[in-house]
Amino acid sequence: MKTHVQVVVIGGGLVGCSILYHLTKLGWTEVVLVERSELTSGSTWHAAAGIHGLHDNNNISRLQYYTMKLYKELEAETGQSCGIHQPGSIYLACTGDRVHQLRIQAAKAHAFDAEFYEISATEIRELHPLMEIDDVKCAMFEPLGGYVDPAGVTHAYAHGARQRGAEIYRFTAVLETSQCADGTWDVVTEKGLIHADIVVNAAGLWAREVAKLAGFELPLMLMEHQYFVTETIPAIASLDRELPSVADRDKEYYLRQEGQGLLVGAYEKAGRFWAEEGTPLDFGHELLQEDLERISDHVMSACDRLPVLAEAGIKKVINGPMIWSPDASALVGPVRGLKNYFVCNGIIPGFSQSAGLGLTLAQWIVEGEPQWDMFAWDVTRFGTWASKSFTQARVLDTYSSRFRIHFPNEERMVGRPLKTRPVYGVQQSMGAVFGLSYGWEHPQWFAKEGMKQMDEFSFERPRWFDVMGEETRAVRTSVGVIDTSNFAKYEITGPKALQWLDRIVANHVPREDGRICLTPLLSLRGGLAGDFTVARLRHDRLIMIGSGIAEDYHRRLFDKYLPEDGIKFASVTAQMTGFNVAGPNSRIVLERLTGESFSNAAFPFMRNKVMMINGYEALLFRLSFTGDLGYEIYVNEINQLDLYRSILEQGQDLGIRPVGSRALGSMRIEKGYGSWGREYSPEWYPIESGMAGLVKTDKPEFAGREIYLQMKDQPPRQQLCHFAIETKPGSTGADAWGGEPIFKQGQYVGRVTSGSYSFTCQTSVALGYVDTVHATAAGGEFEVAILGLPHKAILLDEPLFDPKGEKLRR
Ligand SMILES: Cc1cc2nc3c(=O)[nH]c(=O)nc-3n(C[C@H](O)[C@H](O)[C@H](O)COP(=O)(O)OP(=O)(O)OC[C@H]3O[C@@H](n4cnc5c(N)ncnc54)[C@H](O)[C@@H]3O)c2cc1C
After folding, report:
1. How would you class 237 by CB atoms within 10 Å of its CB: exposed for 0-12, middle for 13-18, buried for 19 or more?
2. Whose CA is nearest to atom 51 of ligand 1?
3. Distance from C-alpha of 5 to C-alpha of 781, rounded to nearest angstrom
4. Contact 342, 52 (CB under 8 A)
5. How far is CA 397 from the centre of its chain?
6. For residue 393, is it left (φ>0), alpha (ψ between -120 and 50) or beta?
7. Which ligand 1 atom is at minimum distance from the Cα of 173?
8. What is the DSSP string of 20-45?
9. Whose CA is nearest to atom 3 of ligand 1?
10. Mind listing the pLDDT tens digit for each residue in 777-792?
11. pLDDT per position as a tens digit, 742-779
12. How far apart are the CA of 266 and the centre of ligand 1, in A?
């Protein structure tokens, strides 16, 4: 056994072996995998191992396709069979919303050259003659769909990794992991100590226990999951080919051919937790007590679909544990607060994602960050706010509606409220419908009297569409107040605070007290790791505002630069609460509130001031994400309620109204402002996103400077563009949301990052990245696939709202 290595991967399931394989593929050979038993001894060995490509998230789809395609290469490379069966998969839609979902996915498939297309009833019958389809409204076919052999795939990864120099130690449990002073790790195993630069937790069902060895917790819960395999079915045995898999997602079961019978699995409503307090260390190749009664409703639905199933005998039942995160997506990446420790856990469709996960994690380790924006998998999306009770509630809900359709703006109520701010009750009494923002309740829109105070989601324009219009008009014509407490806020203090931050962010940190700047933070590859507002209060006190959902993600990046003498970097998100008072009359409200002048001369654009309001200190910024005249006001949370009431009182005669974040989203899109996680992500370079002007190469030092200098004169791959889109008028229409493909004369040329309806300009609008060759033809016609159907889109050379920035400076 090696005693000094670059990486120790803990766990020899499907995922650990894929990580090991991809590390060697990227050239690292001093890498080992440690497995407490035989390979596949967690949930891998008993999986149904179905594979599919499409996901609502484009980059996850991309990596699922990479996975499906890799299995054949892996077989060829290693000689180890992966047991690949690809008879294709048929996806059925029996409701209008499912039709929309499938058509949206089929359109998105163009983004990664994937085959996923609509088929007629005749084609369904040809592909699957045993299926009843009278209730089917639409069906898609994915030729690469099917299943693999769990042990075959795992051993193929292991074989491929060994061929390139990796070593695997079986029957060697990891007992302890302790961090050394230099950030490396001592990994204590049953058979001795391995000293590693980097540790990867790929311990599957035992991910929580292995995390605890390093002193942290993961938001994961285990659920029992059942499928069964039938005896031979004569109608199947007589076929000369294998039947495609069937995804009948409205009924929450999956079904495919297995041998000459069928395999059926289901996600029951009354899901059952397993090993809530910890996975037994001696569990391995056992199964859990079968109980088909629990999934009988789903089985009945499957029998209605495939009547031959009703007559088949059952050959075997599998009830095995699966480990889930609160949103059913994997928890991947470096753990904040620990050096050189990575996780890759909570994986549900492991056989569809194994290669994508392995590649992502290997890139993160070897190259410093993944190639694609993988925030949807990033472990930092759950902070410590994701408590055990929240995780439990969410996992149960997610399990029991595994195939539920995810709509634009979707919010789920279970497990909430977790964290509320002092204005919560008042906002609620004013009609606020809340969403979850990094653990906090945050107003999305304000229901009017007589309206149901709750969300109802739809692919078409939602029930709150008209309210969103009224909230927007309040801002554009008079004044609105928007809660901005959900932004992440950081305070940087100390004599060297300014110099320190200036060496990290790409723009100049303001050179005078009282000024504000916007600045990108560049990633290792030169992409946009963040976009921040930095306010210089004094030379030794800065306030930085960033994306709320990315707080842990950004703190992980800033942690790399700490600790340094004379600098204190602290999150003040909880104690610093704020509002944006925006619109042409916002100045009047602020003057009444403070008794001070807010004229352009007294308080110019992009400045900050500390003022007293009602006897407490408030920090004011002159800027607004609405793109209109506006001011952000921040106070300590104990003063938040008083401030809110005072703002509303002072604006009452001006028709002030509370405005939610959905209206804010519409306003920032019509103004053309990008948002982190949408237009701005590590995947996009500043020269592509319009941020190049904020990268100051005259600075001797900032994160990503060298890579930026190398690439700044290269032609951008794609460019961020503004579109006006022709859609149906009124509440029956639909707008782009994000992820929709953009076509030019039928050819895929890019994708939408955000879309909405512009109430100010009375048109549907979108932001999106388009191949550079097409990005400069203002007035040019494109097609955006909304609900999977082409809609005419005109490329604009500037944002529709206030392109010259006169309103925000008025
Ligand atoms: C009934 C069922 C059906 C499924 N069907 C499908 C399907 O159709 N398609 C699909 O894609 N997915 C399916 N899955 C999910 C799939 O099985 C998982 O996504 C996948 O197996 C996860 O693999 P893993 O490597 O992350 O974890 P595991 O397979 O749990 O591997 C973890 C490994 O870590 C080892 N380990 C743990 N602790 C230590 C330690 N301290 N020291 C050393 N080693 C340790 C364990 O022994 C184990 O071998 C199914 C799961 C179940 C339960």
Report:
1. exposed
2. 47
3. 56
4. no
5. 18
6. alpha
7. 42
8. HHHHHHTT--SEEEE-SSSTTTTTTT
9. 47
10. 778 999 999 999 999 9
11. 999 999 999 999 999 999 999 999 999 999 999 987 78
12. 18
